[in-house]
Inverse folding.
């Protein structure tokens, strides 16, 4: 049990992460005697594709070992893993239709505790976790982990300890990701105020109200205000324009291709006029001629939210401002990828999956301070 507590002491350090995930779970461990059912939780920290995870679980078990007069004991596990979030690679995410795979390997300990004493052994393990986002910050998960107990010094393994699989089911809650390292502490007021979701735009013509699904997308996008712009970035440690849009919609089960030019080919065509757009629509821009090279999410009331190099990171821009009028002048297309909670993106074709040049920094006028 001392090893279990020691590993869990690492957990507070994960709270300083830019993005982290708390995942309660139930498990069945076939590498311990009695195949006990365990209940526990893990805490993971991500900076990009690679992350660190710690966790532990415990539960009662009946065991043939003579640890007590009736063979009753408490089974426990503790693990520390390095995780690779394969779902952050655009091609994999597109092929799996919203399911997010994670592979991991690590080390820890497992054991049995009873009134007459404890037995335990160090373990190495590896496995795969698959999660499915349900709504912003919440996903259901299933995991398979293969455990290999090891001898401790010259002692043999405790009776009943063996190689075997542990199977888990549970859910996860995602936190953090608001700011990346080096993000300025002060941003223009226009970039910090969440955009209202109106029942009609202010362009004179009545517009469609924001659907519940669009409101959830905008709520997710708003969580990343202030995250710095990074060329080629697609995670909360830094986004480029299309990486931000792809990441936000993926949290809602919509798999988009990687670049703005590719994103312009999926979903359904939306209105070209800003006054007729719906919140949640994609606005696509051509900064240097006719080639699409920037994308933003329309937030309603003539406002967009996007990751912009000229603005320093994720921010809102009012399309009626001097800076916003630059974006309106370079707006060349709009796409709708989510409607009433239903993804409008079908299977991605070869062009959407093929490697493509990343979006360049946008040359829009700098925001006024």
């Amino acid at each position: 049990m001392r090893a279990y507590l020691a590993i869990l002491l690492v957990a507070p350090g994960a709270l300083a992460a830019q993005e982290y995930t708390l995942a309660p779970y139930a498990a069945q461990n076939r590498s311990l005697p009695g195949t006990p059912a365990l209940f526990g939780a893990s805490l993971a920290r991500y900076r990009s594709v690679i992350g660190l995870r710690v966790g532990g679980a415990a539960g009662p078990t009946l065991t043939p070992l003579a640890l007590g007069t009736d063979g009753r004991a408490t089974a426990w596990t503790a693990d520390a893993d390095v995780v690779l979030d394969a779902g952050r690679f655009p091609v994999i995410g597109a092929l799996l239709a919203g399911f997010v795979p994670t592979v991991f390997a690590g080390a820890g300990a497992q054991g049995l505790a009873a009134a007459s004493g404890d037995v335990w052994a160090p373990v190495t393990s590896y496995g795969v976790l698959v999660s499915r986002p349900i709504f912003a910050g919440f996903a259901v998960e299933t995991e398979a982990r293969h455990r290999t107990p090891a001898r401790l010094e010259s002692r043999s393994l405790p009776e009943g300890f063996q190689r075997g699989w542990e199977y888990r089911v549970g859910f996860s809650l995602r936190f953090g990701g608001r700011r990346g390292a080096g993000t300025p502490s002060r941003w223009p007021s226009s970039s910090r105020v969440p955009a209202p979701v109106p029942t009609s735009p202010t362009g004179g013509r009545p517009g469609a109200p924001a659907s519940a699904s669009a409101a959830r997308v905008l709520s997710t996008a708003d969580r990343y205000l202030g995250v710095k712009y990074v060329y080629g970035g697609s995670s909360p440690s830094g986004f480029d324009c299309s990486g931000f849009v792809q990441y936000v919609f993926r949290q809602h089960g919509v798999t988009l291709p990687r670049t703005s030019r590719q994103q312009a080919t999926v979903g359904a065509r939306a209105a070209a006029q800003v006054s007729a757009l719906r919140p949640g629509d994609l606005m696509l821009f051509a900064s240097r001629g006719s080639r699409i090279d920037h994308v933003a999410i329309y937030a309603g009331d003539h406002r967009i939210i996007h990751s912009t190099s000229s603005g320093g990171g994720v921010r809102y821009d009012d399309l009626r401002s001097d800076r916003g009028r630059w974006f309106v002048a370079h707006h060349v297309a709009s796409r709708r990828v989510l409607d009433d909670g239903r993804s409008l993106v079908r299977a991605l074709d070869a062009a959407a999956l093929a490697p493509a040049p990343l979006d360049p920094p946008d040359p829009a006028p700098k925001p006024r301070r």
User: Anything to note?
Assistant: The two ends are 56 Å apart (CA to CA). Confidence is low (pLDDT under 50) at residues 1-17, 178-209.
